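Narrative of activities, Objective 1.

The group set out to show that a structural description can be obtained from nothing but a protein's sequence at a throughput compatible with the screening campaign. Below is one input-output pair from the validation batch, recorded exactly as produced.
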Amino acid sequence: MSERRFRAGCGRERRGPAEEASLAYLELAYPECPTCPHRVAPDDAAPFCVWRATDADDPWAPLAAVRPEAPS
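Output recorded for this entry:
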């Protein structure tokens, strides 16, 4: 099985399956986990942190260019 590197919001890295673009880290055992910018806290499930592939584009990057319209 081929692998690639993944990075969490805190900067930690690990290896994982090459066919995945991101991994969900459920343990949240690191001290930075409560403030991780990639931490997700859904209403109906346990929180988790997203580890993104280091060689992939950020899927949310295009939203950085979106500007809300000013109220008229």
